């Protein structure tokens, strides 16, 4: 309690207000010992009391606390106050009155969603510009993290341009599905989109360009992870080139033979992948069959029942 | 939250936020799968997924199994309807693939047992006249794999089963439901896992 009192006094002292330590302690003592208020709540109450007495705005008292600057990829906890340096990658239209702006901001380590509350009264940010976001709070939604800008937050425009990168992620599990749209496909020469029945969603019927890719689902028994393999990675993994795939399709008069060939080699087997995360996908940079020895696991599992009975 | 925002580029939103989430393929040993008989549904409309709750308390809407195909048979009258028996260290699974699972049926048709097979499918149950519940897997995909993959699956399945047994001690709602319905004997399933793992150690 003494400690709390000293801290409160010191903080008020910094603001140029002299508060009697005795008075702080008396109030704390009354709340904590007599009225059974938890110490953290008591501290808050006492601070508020003196702020009112001396007519100091709350923001002045609290905002001075510097929050740690973190990279977007380091945000892994809900309800933490942090400072982030980043570039506005994208702004989304918001039709909610309580949200002034929302979008995606990125730094060297990756991207994160942000929400700026209308109530925060902060200046507008622009797509493609870099800022320092001071005192923002992290939150979690469906396993994904985002940050919220409120009235204690600050936005400082930066002159430099922050390069947005990504941190590779890893996942291992069994491939439980190879999705349609995998294998030998045709892409629109204009926009590179995959054609559906020889037509592009944007440009209609076009003469497509052949490509080879895999869209698959990895599953570790707890989570599913969509993965995307480009031509180069696909060729290396299944051991056939785009030309060979075209040959196979011509011979069989059916593009689906390539897809069957891929499924045959991948489905039901264990793989380890790493790559950049994009939405729900991992853009695979490396993939290899999981051949880590299982002997250790076997030993550990054999030992478990005994250990638990002890 | 994000659902109220109108993104300029919809592709930036994970599909899961639109309400569709792919079901995880759970790892369950044959002995446990055979003893499962409690079907459950999340929600009440016709689109809510249905699950088979197993004695160790996992709600299975999709299952992943690797074992040895020992028998197969086309029991279809007009269209092909394949049924197979897939054996793991603890027992056997029944797998089916009919006209609505053409790819899986095709693989099953051309495979000569014995062979290591991986199956991803949906659990289904059938109640006999005597009131016994028989479980089987309706295959979504089915592929021939190697012995190493089969062993890796046994370890994978053992790990998940042990984790579930651990979770049975707590108050996880599925665990509570499983204990209520099956009065799960933890030692029985621990012995099942041990038996599976010991078969690998030899």
Protein model, in words:
The complex is a heterodimer of chains A (310) and B (202). Chain A is an alpha+beta fold. Chain A has three domains: 2-63; 69-157, OB fold (Dihydrolipoamide Acetyltransferase, E2P) (Beta Barrel), CATH 2.40.50; 168-289, Nucleic acid-binding proteins (OB fold (Dihydrolipoamide Acetyltransferase, E2P)). Helix content of chain A is 30%, strand content 35%. Chain A contains eight helices and 15 strands. A five-stranded mixed β-barrel of chain A has the order 2-3-4-6-5. In chain A, strand 10 and strand 11 (204-205) form a beta hairpin. In chain A, helix 2 (21-34) packs across helix 3 (39-53). The two termini of chain A are 43 Å apart. Chain B has a single domain (23-201), classed as Nucleic acid-binding proteins (OB fold (Dihydrolipoamide Acetyltransferase, E2P)), CATH 2.40.50.140. Chain B is built from five helices and ten strands; from the N terminus they run ββαββββββαββααα. Chain B has helices spanning 30-34, 102-110, 147-167, 173-182, 186-201, and strands spanning 5-6, 25-26, 38-41, 50-53, 59-60, 62-74, 82-88, 91-97, 115-127, 133-144. In chain B, strands 6-7-8-10-9 form a five-stranded mixed beta barrel. In chain B, strands 3-4-5 form a three-stranded antiparallel sheet. Chain B is globular, with a radius of gyration of 19 Å. Residues 1-18 of chain B have low confidence and may be disordered. Chains A and B meet through strand 2, strand 3, strand 8, helix 7 and helix 8 of A and strand 1, strand 2, strand 6, strand 9 and strand 10 of B.
Summarize the structure.
The complex is a heterodimer of chains A (310) and B (202). With 310 residues, chain A is an alpha+beta fold.
């Amino acid at each position: 309690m003494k400690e709390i009192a000293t801290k409160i006094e010191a903080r008020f002292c910094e603001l140029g207000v002299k508060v009697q330590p005795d008075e702080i302690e008396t109030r704390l003592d009354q709340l904590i010992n007599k009225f059974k208020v938890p110490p953290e709540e008591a501290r808050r109450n006492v601070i508020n009391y003196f702020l009112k007495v001396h007519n100091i705005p709350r923001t002045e008292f609290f905002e001075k606390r510097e929050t740690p600057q973190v990279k977007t990829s380091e945000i892994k906890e809900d309800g933490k106050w942090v400072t982030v340096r980043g570039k506005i990658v994208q702004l989304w239209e918001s039709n909610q009155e309580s949200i002034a702006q929302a979008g995606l901001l990125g730094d060297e380590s990756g991207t994160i969603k942000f929400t700026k509350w209308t109530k925060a009264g902060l200046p507008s940010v622009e797509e493609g510009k870099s800022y320092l976001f001071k005192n923002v709070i992290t939150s979690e939604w469906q396993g994904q993290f985002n940050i919220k800008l409120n009235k204690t937050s600050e936005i400082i425009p930066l002159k430099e341009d922050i390069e947005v990168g990504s941190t590779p992620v890893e996942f291992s599990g069994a491939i439980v599905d190879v999705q349609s749209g995998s294998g030998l496909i045709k892409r629109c020469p204009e926009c590179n989109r995959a054609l559906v029945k020889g037509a592009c969603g944007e440009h209609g019927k076009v003469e497509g360009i052949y490509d080879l890719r895999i869209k698959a689902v990895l599953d570790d028994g707890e989570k599913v992870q969509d993965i995307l393999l480009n031509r180069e990675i696909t060729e290396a993994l299944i051991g056939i080139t785009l030309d060979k795939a075209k040959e196979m399709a011509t011979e069989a008069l059916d593009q689906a033979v390539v897809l069957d060939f891929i499924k045959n080699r991948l489905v039901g087997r264990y793989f380890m992948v790493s790559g950049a995360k994009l939405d729900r996908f991992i853009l695979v940079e490396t993939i290899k069959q999981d051949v880590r020895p299982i002997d250790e696991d076997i030993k550990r599992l054999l030992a478990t029942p005994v250990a638990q009975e002890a | 939250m994000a659902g109220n925002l109108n993104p300029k580029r919809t592709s930036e939103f994970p599909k899961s936020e639109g309400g569709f989430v792919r079901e995880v393929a759970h790892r369950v040993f044959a002995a446990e799968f055979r003893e499962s008989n409690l079907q459950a549904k999340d929600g009440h409309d016709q689109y809510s997924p249905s699950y088979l709750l197993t004695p160790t308390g996992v709600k299975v809407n999709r299952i992943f199994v690797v074992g040895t195909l020992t028998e197969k048979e086309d029991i279809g009258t007009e269209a092909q309807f394949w049924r197979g028996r897939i054996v793991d260290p603890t027992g056997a699974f029944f797998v089916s693939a009919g006209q609505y699972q053409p790819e899986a049926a095709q693989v099953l048709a051309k495979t000569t047992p014995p062979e290591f097979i991986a199956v991803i499918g949906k659990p289904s149950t059938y109640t006999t006249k005597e009131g016994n519940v028989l479980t089987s897997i309706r295959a979504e995909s089915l592929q021939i794999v190697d012995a190493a993959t089969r062993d890796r699956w046994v370890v994978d399945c053992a790990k998940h089963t042990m984790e579930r047994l651990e979770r049975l001690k707590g108050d996880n709602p599925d665990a509570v439901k499983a204990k209520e319905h099956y009065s799960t004997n933890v030692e029985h399933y621990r012995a099942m896992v041990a038996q599976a793992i010991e078969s690998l150690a030899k």
